[in-house]
Design brief:
Blueprint (H helix, E strand, L loop, with lengths): L1 E4 L2 E4 L3 H9 L6 E5 L7 H4 L4 E2 L8 H11 L6 H21 L5 E2 L2 E5 L1 E2 L9 E2 L5 H15 L3 E5 L1 E9 L2 E9 L4 E6 L2 E4 L20 H8 L4 E2 L4 E8 L12 H4 L3 E3 L20 H15 L4 E4 L5 H7 L1 H9 L9 E10 L2 E3 L11 E3 L4 E2 L12 H18 L1 H4 L14 E2 L6 H17 L6 H21 L3 E2 L2 H22 L24 E2 L4
Parallel strand pairs: 1-12, 2-3, 2-13, 3-9, 13-20, 19-21, 22-23
Antiparallel strand pairs: 4-8, 5-6, 7-8, 10-11, 11-12, 14-19, 14-24, 15-18, 16-17, 17-18
Helix pairs in contact: 1-5, 1-11, 3-4, 4-11, 6-15, 13-14, 13-15, 14-15
Length: 527
């Protein structure tokens, strides 16, 4: 088995992983592993932008308040304050690296700020409606310029190597030749993104299979609040459109939601905020309208705005919808909710550290306490930036001790490897079944009976899959299937613990919030 030695191993190539790599200059060698190509991440798909207090009528207190309201009582206030108050510095990092955010046409010395649901002020910095792609491309350029950073594409991490209470590195499958390789390092950082592919309908890329969460759970880290899956209200509804998000920024600019009968409905669910209510409220409203009217989708209408403005403000959405025969300047856009963002994940402190001192988690795979029960729009890219910075500070502070960890571990050689020669129909069938179970039984609206049925079905599939492919399989689809099964189990387990409706977790049996409630739903593996 091929061996690699590096100082810091980062798993994932989104905003969290790449910005952290840049922040670690001068420490030693940094290796970034990504299971597809470097630019294939959720970051690249982010349209709306990144939230930061910049406007004259805005303040940190207002952004903090908006975040706490969206989080529905579960945000950690000290974390929210840290993220919001350091946001301008992290935005400056992006500008220094070369990100060119849109400027105010009336005053080019200022940034153009968008408005999104849950925000009381305009504070969304953006690059057109393809902000994530612009940020990702810039970070990739900077990373590839640095000799101390090595990026290896098409590597799937399948196991963390743990010994004496510390992580010694990671075992990965080289997907180009289907051979196992081991990476020994002083620090491992999981920046693997979310879990959207555990659901039938999602805005996430195909890479979002909960890999980091499964890895951390396997070595004994606490996982928390997995019941809080944010469903984005508006994904393009078209048979040939895969995972295409219609940004919340459209509603920020005045787009309205119409049901299948052509009538506005958000005023019936949130009379004050209407289309600009937090995502959990808008998503449940759409779900209710679909059930009431029997429609397959609802519609997002922005046709009342000038055509030229729409094309300039939302070029990517305009051009993409046009490819599917929808001219958003003259036609309403058919949309449905889709699994979008995980508000829980691997428990970390304010430095990105997990329960294992030299194992860090940053970005969507981490549960920092910023989002609580429901993420405020455009706080996700910001979280990745802030906690990448926080992790870099802690790694630098403790580097003298951490660098002693790097040594070859014999335990990695105990793993058995298996080639998958069976018909792939068994794999693809179970992939589809797991995702449909989660959509039907642990989706936007849940009940204890639905969760129990979902649990039994997932348990049955888990027993079959982990029995047939119990060893490390040199196959991407099988290992990702194992991960989504593990994630599905964790989501249901957390959902069954929270006997109330809060944020993105809506339980029919307990439709109201409880005065006394679980702050966090922790799950850990006894090892």
């Amino acid at each position: 088995m091929k061996k690699h030695f590096t100082d810091i191993l980062i798993v994932g190539s989104g905003i969290a992983g790449l910005s952290l790599a840049l922040k670690l200059k001068g420490i030693g060698e940094v290796t970034v592993l990504t299971k597809k190509r470097i630019f294939e991440s959720a970051t690249s798909l982010a349209q709306g932008g990144i939230a930061c207090v910049m406007g004259e009528n805005d303040s940190f207190d207002l952004h903090i308040k908006d975040t706490l309201i969206a989080g529905d009582g579960l945000c950690k206030k000290e974390v929210v304050e840290l993220v919001v108050k350091t946001a301008p510095e992290r935005i400056q990092d992006l500008v220094n690296w070369g990100v060119e955010f849109d400027r105010d046409p009336k005053d080019p010395s200022k940034f153009h700020l968008g408005l999104e649901g849950g925000h009381s002020r305009r504070r969304i910095l953006h690059v057109g409606d393809y902000t994530g792609r612009a940020i990702a491309n810039t970070l990739i350029e900077r990373v590839l310029e640095e000799d101390y950073i090595k990026v290896l594409e098409h590597f799937l991490v399948v196991k963390l190597v743990k010994e004496d209470g510390l992580v010694r590195g990671a075992l990965a499958v080289n997907l180009t030749n289907l051979e196992p390789e081991v990476f020994f390092s002083s620090v491992v950082v999981l920046c693997t993104g979310g879990v959207g592919k555990v659901y039938l309908y999602t805005s996430n890329p195909d890479t979002s299979t909960g890999d980091g969460i499964a890895l951390a759970y396997d070595v004994g880290c606490r996982i928390a609040n997995m019941e809080f899956i944010q469903f984005h209200p508006t994904c393009l509804y078209h048979p040939k459109a895969k995972n295409f998000l219609i940004s919340e920024a459209l509603r920020g600019e005045g787009a309205v939601l119409l049901n299948s009968e052509g009538k506005r409905f958000m005023q019936n669910y949130d009379p004050v905020r209407k289309e600009l209510a937090p995502r959990d409220i808008v998503t449940r409203a759409i779900d209710m309208e679909l059930k009431k009217t029997g429609g397959e989708c609802v519609y997002l209408d922005i046709t009342h705005l000038p055509s030229d403005y729409i094309k300039k403000r939302f070029p990517y959405i305009y051009e993409t919808c046009l490819k599917f025969g929808i001219d958003i300047t003259s036609q309403p856009i058919p949309v449905v909710p889709a699994a979008h963002y995980l508000c829980g994940g691997i428990v970390t402190n304010i430095w990105g550290q997990t329960d294992i001192p030299n194992l860090f988690a940053v970005g969507e795979c981490a549960c920092t306490g910023l989002h609580g029960a429901n993420r405020l729009a455009s706080n996700s890219l910001l979280e990745g930036l802030v906690f990448a910075h926080q992790a870099s500070l802690k790694i630098r502070e403790n580097w003298k001790e951490l660098k002693k960890v790097k040594s070859e571990s014999k335990s990695v050689y105990k793993f058995k490897f298996k080639e998958v020669k069976e018909e792939k129909v068994f794999v693809s069938h179970n992939w589809d079944v797991v995702r449909r179970i989660m959509w039907d039984f642990a989706g936007i609206v849940r009940s204890l009976r639905m969760l129990e049925v979902g649990k039994r079905k997932i348990d049955f599939i888990k027993e079959e899959v982990f029995s047939d492919w119990k060893d490390v399989c040199l196959d991407l689809d099988v290992e990702e299937l194992k991960n989504i099964i593990q994630v599905a189990e964790l989501i249901i387990a957390c959902a069954e613990k929270r006997l109330e409706s809060r944020g993105t977790h809506y339980l029919i049996d307990y439709p109201e919030k409880r005065e006394e409630f679980l702050k966090d739903t922790f799950i850990s593996k006894n090892i």
